[in-house]
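Section 5.1 Outputs to date
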Amino acid sequence: MAIQQDVATVDRPERFKDIALRTLSAAGQAIAQLASGLNTAVLAGLLLLWLAVTAVTSVVGVGLLMAPALLRALHALAGRERDRLARRGPAIAAPEPPPTRLRPALVDPTTRRELRWLVRHATLGLLLGLLGILLPITAVRDTAFPLYWTFMPANTTATSLGIGHAHTWPDALAVALLGVSWIAIILGLGPGMARLQASPGRRLLSAGPDADLSLRVAELTATRAAALDAHATELRRIERSLHDGAQNRLVSVAVLIGASRRMVARDPAGADELLERAQSAAEQALAELRTVARGILPPVLADRGLAGALSGLAADCAVPCRVDVDVPERCAASVEATAYFVVAEALTNIAKHSGAGHATVTARGSGGRLVLRVEDDGRGGADADGGSGLTGIRRRIAAHDGGLTLTSPPGGPTVLTVDLPCGR
C-alpha cells in the first residue's frame, strides 16, 4: 500500500505537468490559428465591401463589368482559406471550379456557399481574429503592470480596458489580477474561439453533397495507386533484406557446417573453429530476421500500444525528443503501424539532416482521426517533394486516405503534421 501511495504521489505532479503543457500548447495553437484567420478575415471584409459597391453600381451597369473580377477574387480567397484550414487540421475537399461569369454564378451552389462564408468570416471571423491578437497583448500589458506603473505619468489609465487609475501598490496588483484573468480566458476559451472561427469555412467551403463525384473517384484512384506502390516497395524492401542479409548468413552457416563435418576426423580443432563461426553467422542471421520481422509489424505496438512504441522511438533517437500522446482509444493495427513508421522515418531524418537540438512528437486522437505532429528546432529547409523518406511517408499515408503537411522555412522550425483515420 505504501508503495502504491508513493507511486501515486510521483505520478500526480507528472499528470499535472502534462495537463498544463497540453493546455498551453492548445492555447498557443489556437492563438496562432486565430491570427492566421485574421489575414483572410480582413481580405474577406474588403471583398464584402467590394461586393456592396458592385451591387449598388450594378444599377447603372458599372457593377456588371466588375462582377467577373469580383467572382475570381471570391474563389481565390475561398481557396486560400481552404489551404489555411488544411494546414491546421483535416484537409477540405474542394469542389469543382465555380463559374466566373455573372449569370451562371447566380445559380451556382458553390458560389452561394462561398458568399455565405464571406459574410460570416468578414464579421464573426474578423472579430475573433482581432480578439486572438488583442487578448495576448492585453494579458501581457496588464500582468506586467506592477513592473512599470511607477514610471507612468500621473492619472494615466491603468487597465487595458481604458478605465481605472493606479495610485497605490494594491491598485497595481489589482491590474495584474485583471491580466491573470485575460490569461485564463485565453487558456479556457482560445481553442473554442479558433474552432468557431474555422467552422464556417469547414462547413461551407467543402464540396457539397451535390458535387461531382468524379473528383473523389480520381482522388481514390490515385490513393489506390499510391497504396499499391507502397505495398510493392515494402515487399521489395523485405525481399532485399532477406536476400542480402539473412539468406547469405544461412548459406554461410551451411557451408561452414559442411566444412567442419569433413574436418572433424582429421582436424578437430579446425572443425571446432568452423563451428564457432557457423554459430556466430546463425546468431547474426537470427538477429537480421528479427529486424525484418519488426519492420513488417513492430511487436512493441501490440505489447505497449502506440504511446509506448513512440516513447521507444524517442528513447532511441540521437536527438533529445519529448513525446506527448493523448489517444484515448486504440486505432486499427495498420493505422498504428503507419503512425509508428512515419514517426520513425521523421526522427531518422531529424537525426541525419536537421542539425536540431531538440524534437517533439505529439499524437492526438479524437473524432475518429489520429493527428501526428513531429517538430524540431533544426535548420529547416526540408523539401516536401524531395527525398525517398518523405515519398515513402506520403505513400503510406495515402494508403489510408490521410493527409500530410510539411512546413520547414529556412532557419526552422520544421513541423511535419500527419492526419490519419483511426479506421477500426
